[in-house]
């Protein structure tokens, strides 16, 4: 009974989270372009992978309990339940802490490109508002 409730809750919550992320992904893609939605897909994949461990475990447990052929196998799985439920969130934390969620090789190129633009030696020029000719004054002088 507990495994059935846990299975239903995990599937429902994961479905709601994934649905919300897909909605935001579509909104971002409409606003900024298709290349900006890949980060959401990585997060969605990570959530589904984490939930799949618990859902798969619960399905096996439910089948073993309903079949009643191997009561010892169901008891072993019941004892493993706490460890499986603990590993699932740690998988998310592990991927985030090791930077496996937001790795994008084009992002590194964009950052380097932006640093090149910022670090260029372009002299600043200011217009003088009080001058009748509105001459340009350079900061290099």
Textual characterization of the structure:
- The structure is a single chain.
- With 141 residues, the protein is mainly alpha-helical.
- The protein contains 4 helices and 2 strands.
- It has helices spanning 2-32, 38-67, 71-97, 105-118; strands spanning 125-127, 136-138.
- A two-stranded antiparallel sheet has the order 1-2.
- β1 and β2 (136-138) form a beta hairpin.
- α1 packs antiparallel against α2 (38-67) and α2 (38-67) runs antiparallel to α3.
- The radius of gyration is 27 Å and the shape is elongated.
- The termini are far apart.
Uncertain stretches of 5 or more adjacent residues: none
What is the tally of helical segments? 4
Order of helices and strands: HHHHEE
Strand order within the widest sheet?
1-2
Residue share in β-strands: under 5%
Helicity, as a percent range: over 70%
Radius of gyration: 27 Å
Most strands sheet: 2 strands, antiparallel
- How does the helix and strand content classify structurally? mainly alpha
Mean pLDDT: 77
Count of DSSP E strands? Answer: 2
Shape: elongated
Distance between the termini: 81 Å
Task: Please render the helix and strand layout as text.
Elements: H1 2-32, H2 38-67, H3 71-97, H4 105-118, E1 125-127, E2 136-138
Antiparallel strand pairs: 1-2
What are the main properties of this structure?
141 residues; mainly alpha; two-stranded antiparallel ribbon; 4% strand
Please sum up the structure shown:
The chain has helices spanning 2-32, 38-67, 71-97, 105-118, and strands at residues 125-127, 136-138. The chain is mostly helical and 141 residues long.
């Amino acid at each position: 009974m507990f495994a059935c409730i846990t299975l239903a809750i995990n599937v429902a919550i994961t479905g709601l989270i994934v649905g919300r992320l897909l909605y935001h992904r579509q909104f971002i893609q409409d606003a900024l372009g298709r290349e900006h939605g890949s980060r959401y897909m990585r997060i969605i994949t990570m959530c589904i992978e984490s939930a799949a461990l618990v859902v798969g475990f619960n399905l096996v447990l439910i089948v073993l309990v309903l079949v009643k052929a191997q009561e010892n196998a169901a008891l072993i799985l019941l004892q493993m339940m706490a460890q499986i439920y603990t590993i699932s969130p740690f998988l998310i934390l592990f991927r985030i802490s090791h930077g496996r969620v937001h790795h994008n090789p084009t992002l590194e190129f964009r950052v380097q490109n932006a640093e090149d633009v910022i670090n260029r030696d372009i002299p600043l020029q200011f217009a003088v508002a009080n001058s009748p000719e509105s001459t340009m004054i350079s900061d290099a002088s």
